[in-house]
Amino acid sequence: MTTQTDGNADKPLVLVVDDFQDNREMYCEYLEFAGFRVIEAANGQEAVDQAFEKLPDVIIMDPPRTGAYDLMEPLVRLRPHNVIYVSCDPSTLMRDLQLVVAGGYKVRRVRAFDFFPNTHHVEVVANVLLT
């Protein structure tokens, strides 16, 4: 797990959650290059623990196809300003976003990416903001 804390407390803190280490490393590298402070978690429980300890400004999450239903209630209690949810299953994304919206967030943007042409698979990225 990486943590960038080099005296840049004024820069936003981003929590990156992904169970694939290569993905986390890529996200973290780009975010650190862009000047963000970054922490990471490999799974949902680790993410909740990190989030309540470090209080990130932004959470970027890429849960498995089953979604992140169990993380939505703790996320809403934590109240990060910005959440970016990457999903490979639009139905679980919508299910999870309903909980976040009911908790005071507004869906700012949703965008689908067809990385797998001629298949039913699609990646969807949703950005929600605390209102």
Characterization of the model:
This protein is of the alpha/beta class and 131 residues long. The chain has a single domain (13-130), classed as Vaccinia Virus protein VP39 (Rossmann fold), CATH 3.40.50. Helix content is 36%, strand content 30%. The protein has a six-stranded mixed β-sheet, with helices on both faces. The longest helix is centred in the first third of the chain and has 13 residues, at 21-33.
Secondary-structure blueprint of this entry?
Layout: E1 13-18, H1 21-33, E2 37-41, H2 44-54, E3 58-62, H3 69-78, E4 82-87, H4 90-102, E5 105-113, E6 123-130
Parallel strand pairs: 1-2, 1-3, 3-4
Antiparallel strand pairs: 4-6, 5-6
What can be said about this structure in brief?
This protein is of the alpha/beta class and 131 residues long. It has four helices and six strands. The protein starts with 12 loop residues before the first strand and ends with a strand.
Structural class: alpha/beta
How do the strands of the widest beta sheet line up side by side?
A: 2-1-3-4-6-5
Strand elements, count: 6
**In percent terms, what proportion of residues is strand?**
25-35%
Order of helices and strands: EHEHEHEHEE
Radius of gyration: 14 Å
- Indicate the CATH architecture: 3-Layer(aba) Sandwich
> In CATH, what is the class?
Alpha Beta
Shape by Cα distribution = globular
Cα-to-Cα separation, first versus last residue: 31 Å
The CATH topology assignment is Rossmann fold
- Say which CATH homologous superfamily is assigned: Vaccinia Virus protein VP39
- Name the helicity range: 25-40%
Most strands sheet: 6 strands, mixed
